[in-house]
Amino acid sequence: MTEPGWENVEQKIEGIDGWLSDIENHFLYSTAKNCANKGVIVEIGSWKGRSTICLALGSKEGKQVKVYAIDPHTGSPDHQRPGQKIWTFNEFTNNIRAAGAASLVIPVISTAEDAVKNWNLPIEFIFIDANYHDHELTKNLIINWSKHLIRGGTIALNSTNPSMLGILSGKPLHGLPGPKKAVADLIYGSRNFKNIRLAGCITYAQKCDNNTLSERMAGRFTQLKSGFLYSIHGAYLLLTKIPSPIKKFLKKSLASRTNLKS
């Protein structure tokens, strides 16, 4: 993560609210940069534009593929409170402009469920960061949006497994039940995805017509790795209940022995 382009992106997103780690942000930047302009880039869940900037500036260094940023800008259920109105679009727009990414970003003020109803563009890379706890909602997002993903295109879903870097740096999301189960059912359990990998809390894969036995086995190995990370996460939660000096020692030991890049 030391290339000059990425260092510039890190400076651009510094101070913008968001939950993705450096590993996850760099994954978005790198994947967008390598898109071949065979379809557009879609982001579901833009919040205030931190991840959108990573996608757009990566694309800017590559084939300059347009980034469709889909978000109702009214916050997720976790942010909404009775009697309080949330409207993040103005801040989103200001952040995109300040980062020099406005020429490639097309905001879509809508829920993902409504936006897909009239969608007719091929997609080369889709990043789903809806943060839904509900399995059915996440499942429907995968089913409905992956129909528009080109063969060889990449689908990436956040909050699907724990990230050791996220855990050790105090990030709040380490894999939500809804996205986790949806990925198990529709990505790991599908014949239409291959090259399944992890990048922090993100699970990503390439669309294919019919994966091979070796590709399915490789995918199951990645699933086992995700399960192992869940086990470590559970152990870490137990460690948080022990005295602080011991916890600091174990935390340091865990950081040195674990591959933080997932």
From TrEMBL:
<dbReference type="InterPro" id="IPR029063">
    <property type="entry name" value="SAM-dependent_MTases_sf"/>
</dbReference>
<protein>
    <recommendedName>
        <fullName>Methyltransferase domain-containing protein</fullName>
    </recommendedName>
</protein>
<dbReference type="Pfam" id="PF13578">
    <property type="entry name" value="Methyltransf_24"/>
</dbReference>
